[in-house]
Amino acid sequence: MQSRYLPFALLALSPLASADECGDVTIADMNWNSATLMAHVDQFILENGYGCNAELVPGDTMPTGVSMTEKGEPDIAPEFWSNSHKEMLQKGVDEKKLRFAGPAFAEGGEEGFWVPKYMVDKNPELATIEGIKANAKLFPHPEDDSKSGFMTCPAGWTCQITAGHLFDALGLEEAGFEMIDPGSGAALAGSIARANDRENAWFGYYWSPTPVLGRYDMVKVDFGVPADSDHYESCITQADCTDPKVTAYPPSAVNTITTESFATGSPAAYEYISNRAYSNADMSAMMAWMEENQADGEIAAFEFLESYPQVWTQWVPAEVAEKIKAAM
Questions:
Q1: Using CA atoms, how far apart are residues 81 and 86, in angstroms rounded to an integer?
Q2: What GO annotations for molecular function exist for this entry (predicted)?
């Protein structure tokens, strides 16, 4: 651990306020970068700002959701991708066991077709799908420069289905594009990195928050229509859809889930949890920082608290912010 972080580590074990004000709180520490960062930030703020005795426990989406619903623990799941578990979560809410505290990401999980910003700076038309189609020759296929290339998701991923249907609905094949399967998620991210490092052309599917979009300036292409969530769910996400229509990607629901007992038993701490939401840009930047520095969630939490006071101080009352700053 770098020496400048030692005061954080020591103080995280010695909350400034009495634990009686909040009590014992368990937080799911899930095994991906954004979730473990959030869990450690929550632990530090709840301990030092609210006097909670906050403990991190290992977590993952399905087992954590089941445990919270059936056993009432852990108290908080900071980052829960809710779409694929709607029924389980709603059942927990209906039975007054769970609460949707608020969004983990202010914009939700964000999907889209993207191009590098340096291309849009040179040709602003490329920020729109019509501009992309009119300038298809700017995106040569790496194996056949008589065609244009669109980088899609790896085979077997749900996003390959959605991107493929939207590729068809947008008429990209007619414009001269051919889909390219990158083969893996790492290869897809690597294709964005290589293009940006060399200022080459790139057009394809990606999502946010992610380290790649924290490291490189990419522009999400405007499809010219709003999101049609019903059509997206009933057709765009279905492999057997035969009549896909153009729709923007609706934001993915990424919530913070708490137990009802935590929400009612620690109302001030719950208010913080319900107030805090990370922007995709900030989270992408932090995820890139974690990769570049090989940092775990604890170190990343300290970096976030030091580097983004203008963000986290908006999540808590002024007197709580002062306690946290004193701990820092």
A1: 9
A2: transmembrane transporter activity
Q: What is the Cα–Cα distance from 61 to 245, expressed in whole angstroms?
A: 31
At residue 259, φ and ψ (nearest 5 deg) are -75, 155
Which DSSP string do the residues of 27-85 spell out, in sequence order? EEEESSHHHHHHHHHHHHHHHHHH-EEEEEEEE-HHHHHHHHHHH--SSEEEEEE-GGG
In tens, the pLDDT along 141-160 reads 999 989 999 999 998 888 99
User: In this structure, what token pair is assigned to residue 35?
Assistant: 């979730």
* Residue 231 φ/ψ, nearest 5 degrees: -65, -35
3-state class (DSSP) for residue 179: strand
User: In the structure encoding, which two tokens stand for residue 253, read together?
Assistant: 């629901």
Give the global pTM.
0.84
Q: Give the tokens for residue 219.
A: 């522009």
Question: Can you name the residues that pair with 55 across neighbouring β-strands?
Answer: 26
* Residue-wise pLDDT tens digits, 172-194: 999 999 999 999 999 999 999 99
For the chain, the first-to-last Cα distance in angstroms comes to: 16
Peptide bond into 74 cis (omega under 30): yes
- For residues 19 and 46, give the distance between their C-alpha atoms in angstroms, rounded to a whole number: 10
**Percent of the chain whose pLDDT exceeds 90:** 86
Dihedral sign from CA coordinates of 84, 85, 90, 93 = negative
Which domains are seen in the chain, by residue range?
3-106+253-327 (3.40.190.10), 110-236 (3.40.190.100)
The pair of three-digit structure tokens given for residue 239, joined into one six-digit string:
């492999």
CB 49 within 8 A of CB 324: yes
pLDDT 10s digits, 194-233 = 999 999 999 999 999 999 999 999 999 999 999 999 999 9
